[in-house]
Records
---
Amino acid sequence: MRVKTMISSPRAVMFLAAFIGALISGQPCSGADALQGITAPRADITLSFVVPGRISDVLVKEGSLVKKDQELVRLFDEPERIQCEQFKMLSEDRTKILAAKAELAQKKVDLKKVEMARAKGAASDWEVEHLNLNVRIAALSLQSAILEQSQYRRRYQHAQSQLERMRLKAPLDGLIEDVSVEAGESIGTLGPVIRLVQNDPLWIDVPVPMARASELQVDQDVWVAFPAATAATEGPNGKIINIATVADAASDTLRVRIEVPNPAKRPAGERVAVSFTAPGMEADNKDMAQLRID
């Protein structure tokens, strides 16, 4: 299974272009200090098979909510399942080991009897040496049987791994955004199969002027105003989770990433206003500063 993250995908470039366009167009923001950003999914990944095959079952549809490790799509795998069952049976079969143990025990008994007979002069040294070799051969046969079962165990594990590669599972909780295949369709390796999006929480990347970014800290509270929100945000509803260490020299800004919970399941791609202080606080501070000057 191949996972392609959204952060480095062309969609990220589209979000950034739209964001820059919003800044240029001068769309209104809520609050004097508010900056504009565009929401993006916390995760937006494309799932693929790493082996070619024929689609056997598509177990989800677009819009389905899925849990981590939930099976999504399955390739036709009857030959692989049969082989896996054969290796499982052979890996659990101890017949050869038990037979080799019994033969070794019998050879040891025979050797002991011949050694007792030689002590009485009833057997030759050659007979004792011959049975000693038989005991060693039987011991090697037992080791070979144990090694063979161990090899079957490894083959069974490999067959299980091959079967797992023929099943596509969700790497995280999320929403099925797109299904690119149908049952009966033959696919190659690394072709897009499922697009999985996680919209709760949402991420917002905001280019913040350098002078202002230097005052920000990771885990700092943030106020995010969504368009046409049903209720005003009284308290902070987001947090800074990352501040870039490399600035954009062209715009003299630093990327600040914000995470905001999305219990209302709003779609990603909305234009929002982001404030790093409580709305209205800047106006109060400016008024106080003006009073001091007066």
Note: The first strand starts at residue 2 and ends at 4.
---
Amino acid sequence: MSPQAPPETRNFEGEIRRVGVEIEFAGLPPWETAELVRRCFAGTIREVSPHRLRVEGTRWGDFLVELDTQYAHPDERVLNEVPLRDTERERQRHQMRIDFHSKTRELIGDVVTGLVPTEIVCPPVPWNELEDLDTLFTALYTRGAKGTDASLLYGFGLHLNPEVASFSVAHLVDELRAYLLLAEWLREEIDIDITREVLPHANPFPKDYALKVLEPDYTPGLDDFIADYLEFNPTRNRELDLYPLLAYLRPNYPHELFTDTLVKPRPTLHYRLPNAQLSQRGWGAVTEWNRWVAVERLAADKDELTQRAARYVSYHTRSPLSRGLQRLRDWLRRRRIAP
């Protein structure tokens, strides 16, 4: 399967847009996974800590492979502490604390290996080279990596981080509008796993926020756009997380989420909806990228976007009885045209 071209193929600097890809799965520990990445794309494996590795020097950059829990890895704040006093005794005590902390985290990782997912964080890949990246997904499938549908306990996902084509607020609002209009369709296309529906990591946007953004007179500046997003979405757990992009655009914005260590500022959207469908041969980043392109195509079609937004607002501001009757009419119409 080949990746479909988005309406805007180049980024704000005129270069081919890139896509970050993150995949969670079970069945393969980090060392075995890192070796798989190395065999697919060459490079050199470097151990950052016992359960966190980098595959460095691939054609796209460095891959990060790790157990997906912060408690399996040394805390950078502890590692970066300095002795309280510049004495030999205090330096020894300080080193003992670091060694104890690191060993404890290693033991936690040993215990939870197999219980928490392994995660691969890929370097940004040009959108037109995602088919090459899918070599890794084929290798994971062949080695028996377990995705979302392998267990009711697995809420694993695939995340895409598509680089934005423009920093214009009008452009970002159109992208968000298109996503809000297609979110239900995407959930049906992907067939979101029941475990991921229950877990909070990829929650839908509140209806009131969707109605606000889809109003035709919603033309905010950047700070108003950020303020509205914070008001309705005081959490990272959205199916399309804008915090990495907003933190990139306004790094000094006065809100704690903009300094959260888990929010990594970057010029991308953070699309968290897809399942990790590693049990399906042929599934990979291209499958989900091609679904995402439908959002960008709608965002680029101003007339269609405006019309669909107006229909959405009209429908969702009707009374519950009116909406129920409309659903009944639509159901009857589908029954009449069904073969």
Note: The chain has twelve helices and nine strands.
